[in-house]
From TrEMBL:
<protein>
    <recommendedName>
        <fullName>GTP cyclohydrolase-2</fullName>
        <ecNumber>3.5.4.25</ecNumber>
    </recommendedName>
</protein>
<comment type="pathway">
    <text>Cofactor biosynthesis; riboflavin biosynthesis; 5-amino-6-(D-ribitylamino)uracil from GTP: step 1/4.</text>
</comment>
<feature type="binding site">
    <location>
        <position position="168"/>
    </location>
    <ligand>
        <name>GTP</name>
    </ligand>
</feature>
<keyword id="KW-0862">Zinc</keyword>
<feature type="binding site">
    <location>
        <begin position="111"/>
        <end position="113"/>
    </location>
    <ligand>
        <name>GTP</name>
    </ligand>
</feature>
<feature type="domain" description="GTP cyclohydrolase II">
    <location>
        <begin position="25"/>
        <end position="188"/>
    </location>
</feature>
<feature type="active site" description="Nucleophile">
    <location>
        <position position="147"/>
    </location>
</feature>
<feature type="binding site">
    <location>
        <position position="89"/>
    </location>
    <ligand>
        <name>GTP</name>
    </ligand>
</feature>
<keyword id="KW-0686">Riboflavin biosynthesis</keyword>
<feature type="binding site">
    <location>
        <begin position="68"/>
        <end position="72"/>
    </location>
    <ligand>
        <name>GTP</name>
    </ligand>
</feature>
<feature type="binding site">
    <location>
        <position position="84"/>
    </location>
    <ligand>
        <name>Zn(2+)</name>
    </ligand>
</feature>
<feature type="active site" description="Proton acceptor">
    <location>
        <position position="145"/>
    </location>
</feature>
<keyword id="KW-0342">GTP-binding</keyword>
<dbReference type="InterPro" id="IPR036144">
    <property type="entry name" value="RibA-like_sf"/>
</dbReference>
<feature type="binding site">
    <location>
        <position position="133"/>
    </location>
    <ligand>
        <name>GTP</name>
    </ligand>
</feature>
<keyword id="KW-0378">Hydrolase</keyword>
<dbReference type="GO" id="GO:0003935">
    <property type="term" value="F:GTP cyclohydrolase II activity"/>
</dbReference>
């Protein structure tokens, strides 16, 4: 059956769609070495960026859902770089959520704290010359951290969780999500052992960027 929309309804529908930043595109099964998950694909209507949620169990309508908001780190997540703590945190989170049997990882395409992969490599090159992670960003003309959590919050709203326990050491993630209407019942620390290549980076995160380490 087809309905023809009047001009007024069509305009109202268009503006409601325009307000949605992100839309859910597809969901599929994702068996992994950490356990069996569902993968939800999302697309940002404004910048076309693709983000995914990795979900264990049925989280719709649930409280205190164990959740990690993970920003993309190709070097750490894919290549096993020892310069940061990203890859290990992602693995820990996947294993932990699988153990609990219910939870969410949002994998946000915010590479390099939002500056992108090429600029992160530029920043790494400056770090090779002695700058720390914050100084390198600033030298390139960027703030330390360009991330915003409104898209992540919208994805959590679409997944239908009531409240979350957030796996993070970063207080800005907590305030950024809360500002966007997400209830966080608890922060769960995510502890990683330092190695000789990332210990300076972790100290800078603690002393300059406010991470709880
Ligand atoms: N610009 C820049 N980005 C980096 C560097 N090292 C790692 N990153 C990025 O930092 C981000 C870290 O993401 P997350 O692990 O989700 O966030 P976090 O701020 O460490 O907070 P938690 O892990 O939740 O405690 C990723 O996007 C990495 O690509 C660096 O030296 N410079």
């Amino acid at each position: 059956m087809h309905f023809r929309l009047g001009m007024k309804e069509a305009v109202e529908l268009k503006s409601a769609e325009d307000e949605l930043v992100v839309r859910h595109v597809a969901t599929a099964n994702l068996p992994t070495k950490y356990g069996h998950f569902k993968i939800w694909a999302f697309e940002n209507n404004r910048d076309g960026k693709e983000h995914v949620a990795i979900v264990a169990g049925d989280v719709q309508g649930k409280d205190d859902v164990l959740t990690r908001i993970h920003s993309e780190c190709v070097t750490g997540d894919v290549f096993g770089s020892l310069k940061c703590d990203c890859g290990e945190q992602l693995e820990r989170a996947l294993a932990h959520i699988n153990e609990v049997g219910e939870g969410i990882i949002l994998y946000m395409r915010q590479e390099g704290r939002g500056i992108g992969l090429t600029n992160k490599v530029r920043a790494y090159s400056l770090q090779d010359q002695g700058m720390d992670t914050v100084e390198a960003n600033n030298h390139l003309g960027f703030d330390d951290d360009l991330r915003d959590y409104s898209v992540a919050a919208e994805m959590l709203h679409i997944l239908g969780v009531e409240s979350i326990e957030l796996l993070t050491n970063n207080p800005k993630k907590i305030s950024g999500l809360r500002e966007n209407g997400i209830k966080i019942s608890e922060r769960k620390p995510i502890r990683i052992l330092a190695n000789p290549f990332n210990s300076h980076y972790l100290n800078v995160k603690k002393n300059k960027s406010g991470h709880i380490l």
